[in-house]
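User: Hello! I'm new to structural biology and keep hearing that structure can be predicted from sequence alone. Could you demonstrate with Helix-turn-helix transcriptional regulator? Please show me the input and the output so I can see what each looks like.

Assistant: Of course. The first part below is the input, the amino acid sequence of Helix-turn-helix transcriptional regulator. The second part is the output, the predicted structure written as tokens.
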Amino acid sequence: MAWLAPEAGFDADAWAAPVIGIASTLADHDSGWHGHRRGQLLYARQGCTRLTFGDRLCLLPPSRAAWIPGGLVHRAQMRQAVDYRSLYFTPDVCRQLPARPVVIAVSPLLEALLEPIAQAPFTQDWSQPRAHHQLALCVLEIAAAPVQPMDLPLPRDPRIAGQLPPAECLPPALDELSRRCGLSTRTIARAMQRDVGMGYQAWRQQWRLMRAMELLLLGHAVGHVAQELGFSAESPFIAFFRGMTGTTPAAFRRRPPG
């Protein structure tokens, strides 16, 4: 394992072992757009991370992990302090793992396997029986882990995508987007259905939910989150959040899903 300092560089593809691991605690960190041949499992032990791929946003809360296939260009943004572990697997190992990026639940067994593998030296001989079985079981657990709905597809139509604000800002209402794009609401509906599989209004609500979860995990008060997301008061926001998740914002913040 390498403990990675915030300012340190790291090349996951510079090593020959079938798996290598790193550990770090980063605050207000932006990896920038990058990619690597190895597939990556990013496990957030503490803190909240936003991952962006070409066609989707993913939220990585504590106690969950993101699987990022090799060769996929992505960006990780960490707000406040995030304590994480990353495992990087060679393409041969990745054949057993998902072909698309997903956020997965981390079982107690998988969590128990991640730490010793992350702590192994880069020169570890993974053909030794104990190490070999640890790695094989870890890969099986990743492949079998339940996928968590923590991602939001992004519209690809440049006429729409070009008029949307940064991910931190509330997307405009449909009528305002129509005015900005110079497109009818019906045309926007068709494009959104094609690109993201839902209408714009439903997509905007999904964005609100993901952003609400992110802000709550970062410790913001419920009233502040409601205001940020364009609700007139706390009560309609609480009703929205409960309707979408089955729990209240305050309960979610106290105990995020694991």
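User: So the tokens describe the shape?

Assistant: Right, they're a compact way of writing down the 3D structure. Reading them back into a model, for example: The first strand starts at residue 2 and ends at 3.
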